[in-house]
Amino acid sequence: MLQKGFLLEFKKDPERVLLEVAQKPGGKKNWMNGAMTSIKPQQITFIVPGVENFDHIEILDFVQRAQSNLDLMLLKFSWIGLLEKNKSVRVEELAEVDELLRRKHAKEATEKELKEFVKLLKSAREMSSHSKPAKSSWRTEEKIRHKIESLEAYAIDKHYISPDREIYQ
To answer: Would you say which domain of life the source belongs to (predicted)?
Structure first.
């Protein structure tokens, strides 16, 4: 059931599909948009789920955020999977799959970054003292600097280091 504030996609004419916000009923079945144009139910191609009380001035921002989150490869693989299974799916289910895939990719990226950091540490540890990188070089790259600071904080919490560099547990 269409309500005021719903964000919807509709066919303005055979060549144009627009996003608009349902503002108020415009007769028995039609709705009026922000430009006070009548939208017939058969023109509506999609109602954006989970979007209520949407303001028409936010449409441009919504489109920009949607485009910045668009992952064409993910969309392609999802579409192929749906075609192969001959399965229909709701938008909410696609969003859920998208979120799971984003988490998986983020976890993989984090694990890869950690492996590279450990490899860097091992490489530096195996170098002779005169060929090791300067201490200051570990603080130039922000991601490495944060990891080094975390290691230092862990070492300080784990062991008390006296001013004369003696370590106590």
So the answer is: Eukaryota
